[in-house]
Amino acid sequence: MAMSRKRILGTLAHRAAVLLYIVVALFPLYWLLKVSVTPTRLLYSEGVRMWPSKTTWAHYAFVLQNSDFPQFFENSLIVSLSTAAVVTLLAAAAGYAISRFEFRGKIWLIGFLLVTQMFPLVMLIAPIFKILSSIGLTNSLAGLILVYSAFNVPFAVFLMQSFFDAIPRDLEEAAMIDGASRFMAFRQIIVPLTLPGMAATLGFVFTAAWSELLFALMLISKSDISTFPVGLLSFVSKFGVDFGQMMAAGVLALVPAVLFFLLIQRFLVQGLMAGAVKG
Amino acid sequence: MSVVNQPTPKPLRQSPTRRLATAVEPYLYGAPVVILVATVMLVPLVIGMTYAFRDITLLNPFSGGFVGLANFRKLAHDADFWLALKNTVFWTAASVFFQFVLGLILALLLNRPFAGRGIAQALVFLPWAVPTFLSGLDWAWLFNPVVGPIPHWLVALGLMSQPENILSDPNLAMWGPIVANVWWGIPFFAITMLAALQSIPRDIYEAASIDGAGAFERFRAITVPFLAPTIAIAILLRTVWIANFADLIVVMTNGGPADRTQIVASYIFTTAFRRLDFGYASAIAMVLLGLLMIYSLLIVILRQTLLARF
Predict the structure, then answer these.
(1) Where are the alpha helices (DSSP H) in A212-242?
(2) Which residues belong to any copy of the ABC transmembrane type-1 domain (chain B) (predicted)?
């Protein structure tokens, strides 16, 4: 009896702790949503209420109609989707090479990619600006895509490699014995099996590119090619007092990232786990 | 029968072109990544290192000459830099500590099967998907007494006499970005630890249970030793990453008030972005890189000695 009561208490404590984590994780996002639908005149009088007595979509309407946010949104979407596509493609090829081949210099390739993961990207801000401006790639979405692709590809290679490692070699060896070239085996057997892994990589890189701020600030100075983070930050400094509108814009920035994350989070966690377990 | 059904053995002799193709194949697959990373990261890194020895300011056509170690001499007497270095240590240590402890607890909670674990996991990992600039802005708003509840809660708890923004208090401001960073970074540690936890064979726990080990004893004798290598690697990588992570600070406080939240990474960014002093920014960056390399080396040596002992 005492044993089972102790177990029930333990279970209760466990559920309560999980619930606490969920509340802490969600509360800041909830608050963002709450303020974004609070009418401006209630903002101060009902400042700490959990939900306003009246709600409004006016802030969203303003942000969508009277600001550059639709343009920022489009720019960010172009940059993030292109970066994700380029990185996933390149990382799939390199991850496959590391997973399936023994070749001279493989250890150097892995070491090289690991080291680039370690060094401070902020130290590249000045030289990258100089180089890109000399070839006309500042104030250009292509320049951002190039930079983001390079920054995200090393991690993506390891992620893809862990997905390839999880597929038994026998499958493609059988196909090759049947006369398929390695490339055909890759395309027709391996690629379909690693689609979840590719989806996870896409989602991961998309989110990273969608969030990047410092290089976008440095490399882009024109408003019509700003990405969402840059636009939101300049909006904050320009309209620093209109919290409703700022948070409405914030919610809009949050939506694509969260959607992507929820779609792929299961695969991503699996992939990271596979990578982490291998050590 | 079985002999007939066997596939014909693959011919051993291949044409030279085919052999060459097989030999270069992995290089072809790996080349695009290497070329991309080398041109966008390695080349600028080397060029950036030369900047450190030059007087190079954007918009100033007369700059660009070599000045030897002048930037580094200036750095040695730069009080802002030493303050930023001190702030970096505090920012990194506090962020990593809380991310790790809270992430480990979360991983232990999620490692136990329960109804709704999938959905709970998706929700607690959600902050990770929040763009960092947005998580910075969001927390800055939560700390703002005009729209955020936190100052009012602190007053209600008696921790604050009247609702004020901790981000404008020089003695407390650093906790703002740290809280945002911890909130945002717990999922990383939780995922890594959860992966390591799930790789521990179940039967070890069962055997220990049968031998009469209690829950705490099992945690100490099985979980901790199994997790230790993962913990070491995760903390090493995360420390380096967080020491360089300037976004939250740039967004939330921009280094203020009175430079009390300026870390070395945000100082580099400010020097390059606002003062356009690329030479000095690169000199600071080189010092930061050196310090991080020394740190990583120390951790690796520590790990090897620990591994050798057990």
Answers:
(1) 214-219, 228-238
(2) 85-299
Query: In chain B, where are the structural domains located?
Result: 15-51, 71-309
Give residue-wise pLDDT tens across range A177-220: 888 777 788 788 888 888 888 888 888 899 889 989 999 999 99
d(CA B129, CA B228): 27
Query: How much of chain A is helix, strand and coil, in % rounded to 5?
Result: 80, 0, 20
User: What ipTM was predicted for this assembly?
Assistant: 0.86
Closest A-chain CA to B151: A48
- Measured in angstroms, the CA of B160 and the nearest CA of chain A are apart by 16
Q: What is the pLDDT of residues B135-160, one digit of tens each?
A: 999 999 899 988 889 998 999 898 88
Q: Are A139 and A218 in contact (CB under 8 A)?
A: no
Say if residues A242 and B164 touch (Cβ distance below 8 Å): no
- Interface probe, candidates B40, B85, B273, chain A, greatest A C-beta count within 10 A: B40
Q: Do A44 and B33 touch (CB under 8 A)?
A: no
Query: If you count residue pairs, one on A and one on B, with CB atoms under 8 Å apart, how many are there?
Result: 267
* DSSP state for residue B166 in the 8-state scheme: G
How far is residue A132's CA from residue A151's CA, in Å, rounded to a whole number?
A: 15
Highest mean pLDDT out of A2-6, B110-114, B295-299: B110-114
Contact call for B30 and A269, based on CB within 8 A: no
Q: What are phi and psi of B165, to 5 degrees?
A: -85, 115
The domain limits of chain A are: 2-43, 66-278
Q: Report CA-CA distances (Å) from B189 to B41, B136, B195, B197.
A: 27, 19, 10, 12
CA distance A55 to chain B (A): 16
Longest dimension (CA), chain A: 77
* Interval A236-268: pLDDT, tens: 777 666 788 888 988 998 988 888 887 777 766
Whether residues A265 and B125 touch (CB distance < 8 A) is answered with yes
**Range A165-169 average pLDDT:** 82
Cα–Cα distance, A21 to A23 (Å, whole number)? 5
Going from the C-alpha of B182 to that of each of A147, B62, B68, B93, B138, the distances in angstroms are: 27, 45, 41, 11, 14
Give the pLDDT confidence score for residue A237 in this predicted structure. Answer: 75
Q: CATH assignment of B71-309? A: 1.10.3720.10
- pTM reported for the whole predicted model: 0.86
Q: How far is A146 from chain B (nearest CA, A)?
A: 8
- The per-residue DSSP string of B88-123 comes to HHHHHHHHHHHHHHHHHHHHHHHTS--TTHHHHHHH
CATH superfamily of the domain spanning A66-278: MetI-like (1.10.3720.10)
Three-state DSSP class for B240? helix
For position B83, what pLDDT does the model report?
95
pLDDT band at residue B3 using 50, 70 and 90 as cut-offs: very low
